[in-house]
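Lecture 7, part B: from sequences to assemblies.

Below are the input chains for today's worked example.
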Amino acid sequence: MKIGKYSLGIGDRFGHQGEAQLRAIMKAEAAGFDVVPVWNKSNREHSYIHSKPDDTRIEADAAVKALSFSRAYFVDADHINLSNVNGFIAASDFFTLDVASKIGTSSNDEQISEFVSSCKKYSGILNIPGIDHPFNVSDQLLKNITLKFLAAIAEAGKIYNHILEQKGADHFVTEVSMDEVETPQTPVEMFFILKMIADQGIPVQTIAPKFTGRFNKGVDYVGDVAQFSREFEEDVLVIDFAVKEFGLPENLKLSVHSGSDKFSIYPVISQIIKKYDKGIHVKTAGTTWLEEVIGLALAGGEALELAKQIYKNALERQEELCAPYADVIDIKQNELPSAIEVDQWGSEKFANTLRHIPGHPDYNPNLRQLIHVGYKIASESGTKYTGLLEKHYDLIGSCVEENLFDRHLKRLFGL
Ligand SMILES: [Zn+2]
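Predicted structure of the full complex, as structure tokens:
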């Protein structure tokens, strides 16, 4: 089972926006760009919402059927590991093997020396076609990379084989992710990681490294765009070389776990993949939920009240809500509007403050990040929330569609 060249991860926390999301994908198709939709949802999201992987499958299948979408689509078991993969096996055909927590854990000495000696060919000066500077692969560097990553990739092998036994080869797409860590992987680390993946026999089609800079949830990239661009381009070239050297799947591509809305690096990604005629997978997740809150605000009345209530509760429960996302949010306390202030807002003011339009005078990335991590509150309000989603289905759907097409797909693929 092969994934197409361009694919977009379209998480949908509450499972109501499948059709709106697919409409955005079909708009890109009409504009000449075939993007494969991948409905991704992590175990954490399922546990907060009390949903199951089967629900994501039902949503995806229903949206595809309703819109007579005829191309391939996938359901991604996002950031799974051996302890939680079983619940995803039946419903998913895309598996993101998250081995970040195993980085730096130990392997036995024999495995370490075996890997190091298998890399002899690459030690010393390593030239990667297309990269204008050579890498100096010293014995120490090779050993450090092995110590850091070998156990993690061995774990990926275990998860892959576990899925393989149950689903059979060619019934799923495999991604390996290491993005949820503090230190970015360098291009040379990526090269040897890919060798480890090939040695494990994992037919990896997408790989998600940690890139340089901050990928805070739902807001723009924070970091050095020029440096990101350099590293991203080198990663693309490293993958190209590794595919040939190690016999990995030819369509292997980078997966950018964007945390959504990395508008300032979308054009960089777009330009580099065009330059080398490469594919890309970009995961967006939270912004569909934020568009639901925007849609509720625009609907006014009790829906606007609920949107305000979600924010006000999130303000009170900040510590609890932010804790699991501490590494991927950056909220300036003194720039969060108070509950009293928000109470006075009308629909437009609320929507404009939350909606990510760079440069809009009302846009507030602090409020946006806080609401981003506040979906647990909506989940707690149960059918009150989902009932209003259904009541304002068309309005909310148009927000979701516009966000995905106008703010994401257009920027990503230069449409
Ligand atoms: Zn991720």
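Note for the exam: The pocket of zinc ion is lined by residues 79, 177, 179-180, 208, 257 (CB under 6 Å). Keep this in mind when comparing with the next example.
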